[in-house]
Design goal:
The complex is a heterodimer of chains A (about 400) and B (about 160).
Chain A: E1 5-8, E2 13-15, E3 33-36, E4 40-46, E5 51-54, E6 78-81, E7 87-95, E8 103-108, E9 117-120, E10 125-128, E11 133-136, E12 141-142, E13 145-146, E14 153-158, E15 174-177, E16 180-183, E17 192-199, E18 204-214, E19 224-229, E20 234-237, E21 254-257, E22 260-261, E23 269-270, E24 277-280, E25 289-299, E26 302-315, E27 324-327, E28 346-348, E29 362-363, E30 366-367, H1 368-371, E31 391-397, E32 400-406
Parallel strand pairs in A: 9-18, 10-18, 19-26
Antiparallel strand pairs in A: 1-3, 2-4, 4-7, 5-6, 7-8, 11-16, 12-13, 14-17, 15-16, 17-18, 20-24, 21-22, 21-25, 23-24, 25-26, 27-28, 29-30, 31-32
Chain B: H1 2-5, E1 17-23, E2 28-32, E3 35-39, E4 52-56, E5 66-71, E6 76-80, E7 88-91, H2 95-99, H3 103-106, E8 110-116, E9 119-124, E10 131-135, E11 140-141, E12 143-145, E13 152-153, E14 156-160
Antiparallel strand pairs in B: 1-4, 1-14, 2-3, 3-11, 4-5, 5-6, 5-8, 6-7, 8-9, 10-12, 10-13
The chains are: A mainly beta (about 400), B mainly beta (about 160).
Pfam families (chain B): IL1
Subcellular location (chain B): Secreted
Keywords (chain B): Disulfide bond, Glycoprotein, Secreted, Signal
Chain lengths: ~400, ~160
């Protein structure tokens, strides 16, 4: 019996088993392998142009890391064209024969979609029925290789369906184009799991994307939360228009607040052509609510409306005032030798949040803990005392206006 | 530099602040393939937004608001890689462990926070002139830039929670 060496580069799994002739097998993870003996291997994917090369043992036909041109086998003096397209295979080498007489059979073991790498996109996509929709196959990274660097074919199908989604344009309502899947338009029945598969001869990765299509009345449920601070300009952005804004087009969005068209008068609201945002020139708390932007999108001869709904929350800006050290006020603090001394540093921060105020001690311009490493002098913890009531004295006449604020403090 | 690690209060506990950060284009932060990316989260997906947990870094001049930023309850910190062209990384280190670290050890985790027109910028302490930035496109990683502009957005809103 002649020992046959097999080389396999980036095999997804080497299945081990005991063959009838008493050969032994080992289970291996992916990576370059060189195994002697009778082996059952699971090939990743073959395409019509791939050749499983069988050559003299001991030489790995592909060296080095990376995906390379694909999987190859090494077996004596025989070439076998791969017969099956897009199907992972198990190649059984039933025994080792003298040179030139290897016996094998090929068996399909798993579905065509069993990729080495399967991931589920971390977030579902939500859309409205009746509107055009684009799903993009998320880019993936494999061992620091960018998917865009690899010549990988990309296909789409819906889980539960046996047919691939057709590519290109045409009559189809759902079609794939590069890494995009288009719904022109989406319908409630389109909800489900869509799988995009990237593959070449040796590698395959697929990603599941969940899509949920809502009735038009549910636009608020799938709105995009955004925030703006009052008393300053605020920006409401019409998100995720990628695919619908044609290059260089001076597109124009229509804006609505709670389905009422906004008066873009450049005083309260500004929206410029070719931009995807609305400016609220000075935000007030009344500006909170649901905003809808609408883009007209033309495909072939049909016009569609693409809408996005934004839930704008208004936030009051953080009130800040200059901190005032109210103690110590004297430059000299008297102390008795050997006694314990505590010097508080008291700071009045008015209505500011304590978080924006830092208070610390230094000794000769250096932080205390760095000067007194042994801890003879330490900085104490911060205490916050709340005095919630501002008493405000207001005086006004036609010439002017003055306010003085004071607070009541426990003695 | 072991001497710097000696503190008056060894193992002092940091007060960790929790904030929400979004860029001037309303993009919030979330994880995608273990990377912090900025984009628009829709409906129920908005729960995926990463809150920022941060502490001041006491090793630096406090007037520059030096802070250390993290996500996931302070278990993954934002760091600048070494080298002239820094890359933003997420490192699995507890922010509370960095609190008592030396200036040298914590520099690449430190950002100086500056405030202008209601927005904040975060400048790397290890790479002056480099700022935290988002891409003008959606779903792209949070990064660092020394060329702010419309392609690299460095202005953020910061809401204390």
């Amino acid at each position: 019996m002649v020992e046959v060496g097999f080389c396999c580069h980036r095999v997804s799994t080497l299945i081990t088993d005991q063959l009838a002739n008493g050969g032994t097998y080992q289970k291996k993870e992916e990576g370059p392998r060189n195994i002697a003996g009778n082996v059952v291997m699971s090939l990743p994917v073959c395409t019509g142009s791939d050749v499983i090369t069988m050559v003299i043992p001991g030489q790995c036909p592909i060296q080095g890391a990376g995906l390379g041109p694909g999987l190859q086998w090494a077996i004596p003096q025989l070439s076998l064209s791969c017969l099956l397209r897009n199907v992972p295979l198990v190649l059984y080498i039933s025994s080792a024969h003298p040179m030139g007489a290897s016996a094998f059979r090929i068996q399909r073991v798993q579905s065509a979609d069993d990729c080495q790498d399967h991931t589920t996109h971390f977030r579902p996509t939500f859309a409205l029925a009746g509107e055009p929709l684009v799903l993009q196959c998320p880019p993936f990274q494999y061992k620091n290789m960018d998917s865009s660097d690899l010549a990988l074919n990309l296909t789409w199908y819906k889980n539960g369906s046996t047919t691939l989604i057709p590519a290109g344009s045409g009559e189809n309502r759902i079609l794939s184009q590069d890494d995009m899947l288009w719904f022109l338009p989406a319908s409630l029945q389109d909800s489900g799991e869509y799988i995009c598969t990237r593959r070449n001869a040796s590698y395959c990765a697929d990603v599941s994307i969940y899509l949920q299509v809502f009735d038009k009345s549910a636009s608020q449920e799938i709105s995009f939360p955004q925030k703006a601070f009052t008393r300053s300009p605020g920006k409401v952005v019409c998100p995720n228009l990628k695919g619908f804004v044609q290059k260089d087009a001076s597109y124009e969005l229509k804006w609505y607040k709670a389905s009422t068209p906004l008066n873009i008068d450049n005083e309260k609201f500004t929206a410029l052509k070719g931009t995807d945002y609305l400016i609220i020139n000075s935000v007030t708390s009344d500006d909170a609510g649901y905003y809808t932007c609408q883009l007209t999108f033309e495909h072939e001869t049909t016009q569609y409306n693409v809408t996005r709904t934004v839930r704008l929350q208004t936030l009051d800006p953080v009130r800040k005032s200059i901190p005032v050290i109210i103690y110590p006020t004297e430059r000299i603090t008297l102390a008795a030798m050997g006694s314990r001394l505590i010097i508080p540093c008291k700071v009045y921060i008015a209505a500011s949040h304590e978080f924006y105020t830092d208070v610390w001690w230094q000794a000769n311009d250096t932080d205390i803990d760095l000067v007194y490493r042994k801890g003879r002098v330490t900085e104490g913890k911060r205490h916050i005392q709340e005095f919630n009531t501002d008493f405000k004295c207001v005086a006004t006449n036609t010439r002017g206006f003055q306010v003085h604020t004071t607070q009541v403090k426990r003695e | 530099m072991d001497g710097d690690k000696v503190c008056a209060m060894p193992g002092a506990q940091a007060m960790v602040f929790r904030s929400r950060i979004w860029d001037v284009n309303q993009k919030s932060l979330y994880l995608q393939n273990d990377e912090l990316v900025a984009g628009y989260l829709q409906g129920p997906n908005s729960a995926l937004e990463e809150k920022i947990y941060w502490i001041p870094n006491r090793n630096f001049n406090r007037e520059k608001f030096p802070i250390i930023l993290s996500i996931k309850d302070g278990s993954q910190c934002l760091a600048c890689s070494f080298g002239a062209q820094p890359v933003l990384q997420l490192e699995s280190i507890r922010i509370s462990d960095l609190y008592n670290d030396s200036k040298e050890d914590s520099t690449r985790f430190t950002f100086f926070r500056s405030y202008k027109n209601g927005m904040w910028r975060f400048e790397s302490a290890s790479h002056p002139g480099w700022f935290l930035c988002t891409s003008s496109r959606s779903n792209e990683p949070l990064g660092l830039t020394q060329n702010p502009g419309s392609a690299h957005v460095i202005d953020f809103y910061f809401q204390l929670l």
